[in-house]
């Protein structure tokens, strides 16, 4: 349980001032546009309120609300239902969250309650070892690639320190991941050195060098000799915690040269290297790191599976790496103000039927890609019951796809697809805009771009809040006939 956030919530209860989820996200150094970070926020608040409830106190996470709608999230009411307080929908209708705010204010403003319960001694953490530290990663960087002298006491001490800091923590990291994803296995032998050669006056000699990294491999059970895996570990060269989709490319790999070439060409660029830099380490702990890396692996297991099939199965690479979406971050470049409209008023010959048909086909292809992406994502999380319910809805609903979040809330997805780049503007109907405003907590836009109709693939990013993310420019009007008022002067 996060003691800092709990203390902050208690103080807000005493002040009687609700706090926005967005502010708590900043305290936790979270990016709430990322689903994995929203999950961390939900888990953090849920853990605190569950603890309070189990000890006979009001739910202090009720003091946190959405900035955009001045109300509690569905996650709060789902927690209430899990705690057997009542049905989520009924509690939401009754505004139970706001009655809990009043209960929290009354409870924590009593000095005897604050003195007795504000500070708690938590049970021993469920994590068995301390988190990675900057000093450990700096040490790995300092000793990387040095020739190891087996009779040198300083070298022996350095070896033991690396093995018992970055080495054992990388091992622990991978062990905890597979506890959460039981269909996976790992190989995490704490190798601290690598063999090499050193020039001497009498010629080259075989030596052992300190490795510049620690690593653990994670793969599906039974795939241990296929040499394709997710990697987690510490990179001493760049001084980062790293997680990525990878393969074993050394000479003693089970993979032949052709297989290695296929993998190299087909691992998506965004999966080759994800990292947390050393100057960000202080903002992380085991909970946050595990949430992020478990989410990364579960979201991309379908890519891993396709690589395995491609290299070790009988399928052709072209058929395997079609029909996929590649997640990307929200573009940082964009417009500060709406661009100036500058129509040419020149005549244009348009084949409207052809254009409408092509747009419809492009839209349908994008929707089907997103539908399958959501099904894969939910299946990888173990929500097979929800995956079976993902569907493309009929026109006119204000969104395209009914899916679900990790916490089982409904997710309403509008899909916008283009063959052009990520900054290409798109049309949003008034129906879609109004639906988005009414369903802010559950509505997202999947913006697909760089769509390739030959392979049926695209890059995409997710828009969570249209008011915060988009500049909207009216380009079409609905015209009504004005009521004609008689001119009395002409009677």
Percent of residues in helices comes to: 40-55%
Shape field: globular
Q: What is the arithmetic mean of pLDDT? A: 87
Would you tell me the structural class of the helices and strands? Answer: alpha+beta
By oligomeric state, this entry counts as single chain
Question: Could you explain how this protein is built, in words?
Answer:
It is a single chain. With 491 residues, this protein is of the alpha+beta class. It folds into three domains: 3-117, no CATH class; 134-320, no CATH class; 352-469, Trna Endonuclease, Chain: A, domain 1, CATH 3.40.1350. The protein contains 17 helices and 15 strands. A six-stranded mixed β-sheet has the order 10-15-14-13-12-11, with helices on both faces. Strands 3-6-7-8-9 form a five-stranded antiparallel β-sheet. Helix 16 links the parallel strand 13 and strand 14 (443-452). Helix 1 packs across helix 6 and helix 10 packs antiparallel against helix 12. The protein is globular, with a radius of gyration of 28 Å. The mean pLDDT is 87.
Give the helices and strands, then pairings.
Layout: H1 3-15, E1 19-20, H2 21-27, H3 35-54, E2 64-65, H4 74-82, H5 88-93, H6 96-108, H7 111-117, H8 134-143, H9 153-180, E3 184-187, E4 193-200, E5 203-210, E6 213-220, E7 228-235, E8 240-247, H10 257-266, E9 274-277, H11 286-299, H12 301-312, H13 317-320, E10 325-327, H14 352-380, H15 384-387, E11 391-392, E12 401-404, E13 410-417, H16 430-438, E14 443-452, E15 457-463, H17 466-469
Parallel strand pairs: 1-2, 10-15, 13-14
Antiparallel strand pairs: 3-6, 4-5, 6-7, 7-8, 8-9, 11-12, 12-13, 14-15
Helix pairs in contact: 1-6, 3-11, 8-9, 9-11, 10-12
């Amino acid at each position: 349980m996060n003691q800092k956030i709990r203390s902050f919530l208690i103080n807000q209860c005493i002040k009687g001032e609700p706090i926005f989820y967005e502010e708590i996200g900043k305290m936790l150094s979270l990016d709430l546009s990322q689903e994995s970070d929203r999950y961390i926020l939900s888990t953090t608040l849920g853990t605190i309120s569950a603890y309070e409830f189990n000890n006979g106190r009001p739910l202090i996470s009720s003091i946190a609300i959405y900035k955009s709608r001045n109300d509690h999230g569905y996650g709060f009411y789902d927690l209430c239902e899990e705690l057997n307080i009542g049905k989520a929908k009924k509690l939401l209708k009754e505004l139970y969250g706001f009655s809990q705010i009043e209960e929290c204010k009354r409870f924590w403003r009593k000095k005897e309650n604050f003195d007795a319960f504000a500070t708690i001694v938590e049970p021993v953490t469920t994590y068995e070892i301390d988190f990675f530290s900057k000093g450990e990663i700096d040490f790995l960087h300092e000793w990387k690639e040095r020739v190891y002298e087996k009779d040198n006491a300083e070298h022996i001490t350095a070896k033991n320190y690396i093995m018992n800091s970055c080495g054992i923590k990388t091992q622990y990291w991978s062990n905890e991941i597979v506890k959460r994803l039981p269909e996976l296995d790992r190989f995490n032998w704490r190798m601290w050195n690598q063999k090499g050669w050193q020039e001497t006056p009498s010629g080259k000699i075989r030596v052992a060098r300190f490795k510049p990294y620690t690593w653990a491999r994670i793969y599906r059970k039974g795939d241990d000799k296929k040499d394709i895996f997710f990697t987690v570990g510490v990179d001493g060269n760049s001084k980062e915690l790293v997680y990525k989709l990878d393969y074993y490319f050394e000479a003693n790999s089970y993979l032949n040269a052709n297989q290695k070439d296929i993998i190299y060409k087909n691992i998506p660029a965004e999966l080759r290297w994800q990292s947390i830099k050393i100057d960000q380490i202080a903002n992380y702990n085991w909970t946050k790191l595990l949430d992020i890396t478990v989410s990364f692996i579960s979201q991309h297991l379908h890519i891993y599976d396709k690589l395995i099939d491609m290299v070790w199965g009988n399928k052709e690479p072209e058929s395997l790496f079609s029909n996929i979406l590649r997640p990307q971050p929200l573009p940082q470049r964009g417009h500060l103000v709406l661009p100036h409209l500058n129509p040419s008023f020149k005549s244009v010959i348009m084949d409207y039927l052809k254009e409408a048909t092509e747009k419809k086909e492009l839209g349908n292809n994008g929707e089907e890609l997103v539908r399958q992406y959501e099904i894969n994502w939910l299946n990888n999380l173990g929500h097979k019951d929800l995956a079976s319910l993902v569907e493309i809805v009929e026109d006119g609903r204000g969104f395209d796809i009914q899916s679900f979040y990790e916490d089982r809330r409904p997710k309403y997805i509008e899909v916008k697809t283009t063959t052009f780049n990520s900054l290409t503007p798109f049309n949003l109907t008034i129906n879609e805009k109004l639906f988005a405003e009414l369903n802010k907590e559950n509505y997202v836009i999947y913006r697909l771009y760089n769509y390739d109709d030959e392979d049926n693939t695209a890059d995409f990013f997710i828009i969570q809040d249209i008011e915060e993310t988009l500049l909207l420019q009216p380009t079409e009007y609905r015209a009504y006939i004005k009521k004609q008022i008689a001119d009395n002067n002409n009677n």
